Every structure is written in structure tokens, then in C-alpha cells.
Amino acid sequence: MISGRFNDQHKMNYMRHVKEALCARSVPVDMVKADFAGARFGNQTALLLYRAKALLTFCTRDYGEKTGAQYETYIELEYAHQNKLAILPIQLCHEFPPCPKDEEGQAQNALVFRSDLVRIIDKDMSDPARVAEEISDAWFRAIQYMCLCDA
Predict the structure, then answer these.
(1) Which domains, and CATH codes, for the chain?
(2) How many CB atoms lie within 10 A of CB 85?
């Protein structure tokens, strides 16, 4: 599942480009459809989190902020961490972990996004094709690893 802040059109377009490139590479990925102002996507978020095997976190500076909305990146990251989903951060901000305005978001990001966590970096949000390729490579390596462990 793609997780990111939908508060900026550039961010949304970037995440959509990565999603489309992943789908073209046969990587099963989805994200909520927030196509218009005032869109409600709580039910979509709950269903996608329930089905998710991994969380692709698009880490802009405000990622993980506790905004008071019922469905937000803070809640998505909390769910993924508590349910031991694989978390693959895509670092889009200059500092890591992301540093949202609120202390609760900062604390959770510091806990979940450890310094030794492997991440994909595209600080200028300029290369969604490369990011998708790196995610795809990681996905298929993980599948191969799981198959080897089951053998």
C-alpha cells in the first residue's frame, strides 16, 4: 500500500506515477483514490491496510504528522508497525526520519524509521521511474527470499 500525505498536488502526482510504474512491472500495489477536494477515503484506507503486506511510505517532511484526521499517515504507520508489515520508506525530504510539526508524529517516526532501515532516496521527487524500479527489485527479491526459506 502506498502511504503519503495527499495535501499537495505535486506529491499526489509523484505517488501516482510510481504506482503506475509499479503496476506496469506487475508489482501488486494500491493507494486510496483521493481524486477531488473533500474526498472521503477512510473506508478505502481501512480496507487497503487490512489487505496490505507492506507499506510504501512516501516520506515528505510532514509524513507521519498527527493532524487529528481519523485516517492519516500517522495512523497508517502506526498500524503497519503494530501489525509487523514490511515498511519500505521512500525518502523525499532532506532529513530522515521525517520531522512533522507535532511531537507525537516526530516520536513515532523516530521509533519506526530507525537509522539502519534501508530506504530509497529521491529528495527532489524527480525520478519516479527509478524509484519504482528500486521498489520492484526489492519486492521481487523479498519474494525470492520467502520462496527459498519455504523450500
Answers:
(1) 2-150 (3.40.50.10140)
(2) 17
